[in-house]
Amino acid sequence: MELTVKSARRYVDEIPAPLAVVGVWGGELSEGGQKLDAKHRGLLSRMLDELRFKGEFAETLLVPTGETFVLLFGLGKKRGANLETVRGAGAKLAAEIAHLGFREAVSETFLADKLGKKEASYALAEGVLLGGYSFQKYKSSPEHKKLRLWLARSNGPAVDRAEIVAEAVNYARNLINEPPNVLNPVALAKRAQELTALGLKVEVWDEKKIQAAEMGAYYAVAQGSVNPPRFIQVVYTPQGKPQRVLALVGKGITFDTGGYSLKPNESMLTMKCDMSGAAAVLGAMQAIAKLQPQLEVRAYIAAAENMISGHAYRVSDVLKSLSGKTIEVLNTDAEGRLTLADAIAYADQQGADSIVELSTLTGACVTALGEKVAGLFTNDARLGREVQEAAERAGEKVWPLPMEDEYREMLESSTADLKNVHGRNRYGGAIIAALFLREFTEKPLVHLDIAGPAYTERPHALGPAGGTGFGVKTLVELVGV
Ligand code: BES
Ligand code: MN
Ligand code: ZN
Questions:
Q1: What percentage of the chain exceeds 90 in pLDDT?
Q2: Number of domains, the chain
Q3: Centroid of ligand 1 to alpha carbon of 477 (angstroms)
Q4: Cα(366) to centroid of ligand 3, in Å?
Q5: 369 domain-assigned
Q6: Which residues line ligand 1 (CB under 6 A)?
Q7: How does pLDDT run across 417-440, given as a tens digit for each residue?
Q8: Ligand 1, atom 5, residue with closest C-alpha
Q9: Which of 16, 26, 63, 219 has its CA 20 to 30 A from that of 245?
Q10: Which of 232, 288, 200 has its CA nearest to residue 473?
Q11: Considering the domain boundaries, does residue 393 fall inside one?
């Protein structure tokens, strides 16, 4: 859907549009609703009573008023409602208005108890823009819907910011939803290069430069595919002196077959999502370029495809990583950590003060936390807290898991400095993977395992099935604009 959200200062009853939306909190008309009710001589409250409209969350009632329509939109109980309620309502509202076929509408800004106008405006606009997303690029006859939505009595700058952030999330979703035959590492690099239009500096290395740079762990993962790897760097430099340098690292496996440790088809079905970390990082860079925070942000993506062929890496291969540490490969399906090892080491060498890395790294993390919550691992309590608080503000769910030193010995190899998996027992796989990554920097590092929330096979509160864009909002909150 082609969707624009515009901020208006006036009340919902003062803005002419074919459809006006007002909230109903547990059976009670909102302030805007009461104004409209008065304008229509009590029609809305009569309808509420006669049809026993309770205003359960996302319950709707379309009321014709003669020349225009009013949509009563249920918001559930007012007590306990929060920003997520408003964001979720926005998403449902976008779908509902599109379904009804209106091309222009005005909605009041839903104010939950204790919610400021600014926060509510932001959450509602963001919800609408995320909820209106769909990916139709490969449909022969795509639905082509257009909607312009006015938000009455809303905060203009908050709506503008929501537009920037939601656009970045939807951009990440588009990258994830692209099929892997289209979005290979070269194509991903091309998409990254387009960000130069926003004033970002983008540098892309081909397979020769990657090999010459001695990124031996990353290179090994990539060598099985006819689609060559691309190492992608995107830099945002603020005007004036940067407060600090933040590195963002995203896992960019454009398709993960597992390699010779081949995945069964069932597990491979969603593996185009294995570049969701990269998508989140690129989405965040897009928003950061527009929001102009006072720190330097550098994104690193070691893009590759994990395939099988006569060139592919094997089980038992020993690789030399950029850090100098050697790694014995005991499972070619634990490829993400190999590519990330070199990307993290490189971010460190380039002078990052702290590193935040996002990856669809382990099925074990999904087993631990389910499909809605990302695992947060860190070697630095302060950076960990910063990221966790950013995620809370963003409405993205993350939960800390321990970097348990006692498990470190499971990564000892008899042949090399490390092995890439912990052998036959599969317990604690998300933690082991995090411990592996910790070997490649001593800088403050946060690892977010987003294997659960990055992709969904069913529609969710803020969008359809497919890539969710998880992580973009957290990163934007983290840079603090
Ligand atoms: N990309 C997968 C992890 C994954 C699983 C992402 C489910 C999204 C949903 C990763 O490369 C992988 O294959 N991990 C292995 C690790 C194992 C071999 C130690 C896994 O989770 O099974
Ligand atoms: Mn894998
Ligand atoms: Zn993977």
A1: 95
A2: 2
A3: 28
A4: 13
A5: yes
A6: 256, 274, 331, 333-336, 360-364, 366, 421, 429, 451
A7: 999 999 777 899 999 999 999 999
A8: 363
A9: 219
A10: 288
A11: yes
Q: Are residues 23 and 129 in the same domain?
A: yes
Same domain, 174 and 143: no
Q: Count Cβ atoms within 10 A of the Cβ of residue 467 and give its class: 0-12 exposed, 13-18 middle, 19 or more buried.
A: buried
Domain membership of residue 95 as a residue range: 2-151
Quickly tell me which residue has 């590492």 as its tokens: 185
Ligand 2 is an ion; residues with CB less than 5 A from it: 256, 333, 335
pLDDT score of 406 more than 80: yes
Ligand 2 centre to CA of 258 (Å) is 5
Atom of ligand 1 nearest to the CA of 422: 19
- Domain assignment present for residue 83? The answer is yes
**Pairing mode of beta strands 296-306, 245-256:** parallel
Q: Please identify, among 151, 186, 220, the residue that sits at the C-terminal boundary of a domain.
A: 151
CA-to-CA distance for 5 and 286, rounded, in angstroms?
19
Query: pTM score, two decimals?
Result: 0.98
State the ligand closest to the CA atom of 360: 1
What share of the chain has pLDDT > 70, as a percent? 100
Question: In whole angstroms, what is the distance from residue 139 CA to residue 35 CA?
Answer: 43
Joined together, the tokens standing for residue 11 give 């009340």
- Distance from residue 256's CA to the centre of ligand 3 (Å): 5
